[in-house]
histidine kinase (Streptomyces finlayi), 429 residues
Amino acid sequence: MSQRALWAWLFGRTARIGWLHLVVGGALLMPFYLLATVAIGPLTGENSPFLSVPGQFYAFVAVLPLVAVFGLLAPARPLSVATIRSLGLASGRADGFPEGPARTRAARVRTSGWFTLHLALGGLVSGASLALTPFAGVLVALPFVPALRNSDWGVRELEGKPWLVALMPLAGILAMLLLAAASAGASALLARWAPLLLGPTPADRLAAAERRAADLAVRNRLARELHDSVGHALSAVTLQAGAARKVLDSGRADDVEFVREALAAIEDTTRRTVGELDAVLGVLRRGEDAPEDGTGPTLESLDGLLARSGVPVTRTGDDDLAKVPEAVSREAYRIVQEGLSNALRHGGAHPVSLHLAVTADRELEIVLENPLPEHPAPVRPGGGRGLRGMAERAVLLGGRTEAGPHASDGVWRLTARLPLADHPDTGPR
């Protein structure tokens, strides 16, 4: 270690902050220590409030179990973490410390170990700082102040030994260096053990992972809602607007009614989509921890969706889907909506067939078919999330989806099967 590195280790900013952290530990130890002196005094036969050196040692040893018991209490970890962060003892690692109190037994035991270590080392370094600093000052001044050699400091024996008196400043400086080394070593030990004793336990890591998973689920859900609702609306509006423009360009007066219907469909679609967008943004404004309110279009609104889809749809299967649970009905609506968006985007205004039925296995079966386009539409940059979103919706309900071209039939077929049984995330219906 170079001289500069040694000096930085002994007296650098990190060393000074570490010493201050130890002094805080010593200050926290004082109430426990004073309580211990009250109990140790009668046991050692010392009636003075200032115990002898052995009595102080006994009090220090006796106070450590009391500190350890206090460290088991829940507020000990937030207090320790706040001290570390405010002083920057474990710089770069303090952000990984848990915020709240220690809840599990393992976390409390680890916190108690840290709290005891901090206060014990802090008490030793603080006591040494209070005792050695003035003593070292006396030793440094001893050759230059003759009166000190005749004082009650216990150094009268140095009279007549000038060579020994001359060495006293070196002894004082050495004492301060040893104190600085002890402080730097203690603070380095605390910085090393802080992440191990105050860092997250396996239970804390599991809780953090669950929070991240819940956050990701919320974001994915909102992303699917925005993709399916807004994506479908934009596809339908684009097709309707394009068809109306072509009619106007043709200049045929008898097609004015078609343009009027197209504009009405655009108006209705955009108004409905703005409402759905407001609902999703409302969830974002409430925060990610806002409970799921269970709102959203269901299969009861399917007729309106088919009428505004922008493509002719032939529907078969069950007309009465009231027995479908609400959670399944909402996801089924979004799957049909995204399927129609894909058909409109890639197949144009060609007819689409939709089959909805409840099977004997108590599954809602959705089959949507549209003709394969002669010239497939180019894939949009960043696109391709619709099929994945539909699959995610089905998996969350315990179902499955299949989608792809069937060249033998000349169609693109989307199939989804959603169980009607109750789900833990939705509750009984």
Observations:
- The mean pLDDT is 78.
- The chain has twelve helices and five strands.
- Residues 208-419 form a domain with the Heat Shock Protein 90 fold (CATH 3.30.565.10).
- The CA atoms of residues 297 and 330 lie 6 Å apart.
